[in-house]
Design brief:
The protein has one domain. The N terminus is likely disordered. It is built from one helix and 13 strands. The protein has a six-stranded antiparallel beta sheet with strand order 1-8-9-12-7-6, with no helix packed on it.
């Protein structure tokens, strides 16, 4: 498995709320850059033009459309809620070659929990609960032919990681302090990969 980046709602977790918009993260210690799957993937149906009501989402048996509702009765579609997994999700290419609504988590990779730099550690703002899952961009294996990458979902260990933090790649792995995150962030390890079939598959269509 080649881990390239972990996608989060905002860089370095600006808040505990799950209602933030997805955006790119800062660079990791090894120089890798997070990317916004919704922005990179033109097939993403979770990002409609707000002024075009014809692109508003329609809830299914599992995926539920999320909206902003104004006091005046106005409503704007903002994304998807996986009612089975109880989490927000975003439609991106999964490792099995299908578009799926994968978890959208509020975290960023800041290092690794082992001397081989193989167990990613992510940051969560102090005082906030870790998300149950997050997605990682991978550029090898069964990736999108048009985009050159796909996403895999991983669980996030709810327990805080307090051990030695490493940074770099497997060939350059070395101890790091975790700065500048240590003062404002808690560290959590990624756990096992979640099979793509655990998430709803979607097909891109048009009128």
């Amino acid at each position: 498995m080649r881990i390239v980046t972990l996608v989060g709602f905002v860089a370095l977790v600006g808040a505990c709320s799950r209602g933030n918009a997805i955006g790119p993260d800062d660079r990791h210690p090894d120089g890798q850059q997070n990317q916004d799957p919704s922005k990179d993937d033109p097939s993403d149906p979770s990002k409609p033009t707000p002024s075009d009501p014809s692109k508003a989402g329609t809830s299914g048996s599992r995926l539920k459309a999320r909206y902003y509702e104004g006091e005046d009765g106005s409503k704007q579609f903002i994304g998807w809620w996986d009612s089975q997994r109880q989490e927000d999700c975003v439609m991106v290419p999964a490792k099995d070659g299908k578009l799926r609504c994968l978890p959208a988590a509020n975290v960023a990779i800041t290092g690794y929990a082992d001397a081989n730099c193989s167990v990613p550690v992510v940051t969560v703002r102090k005082g906030c609960a870790a998300p149950s899952a997050a997605i990682v961009m991978e550029t090898s294996g069964n990736v999108s032919c048009s985009l050159g990458y796909a996403y895999a979902a991983y669980g996030v260990d709810p327990a805080k990681f307090t051990g030695t933090l490493y940074g770099g790649s497997p060939s350059t792995c070395k101890v790091t302090t975790g700065e500048p995150y240590a003062e404002t962030m808690d560290f959590h390890r990624l756990s096992s990969e979640i099979p793509p079939t655990s998430f709803v598959a979607v097909n891109q269509t048009h009128d």
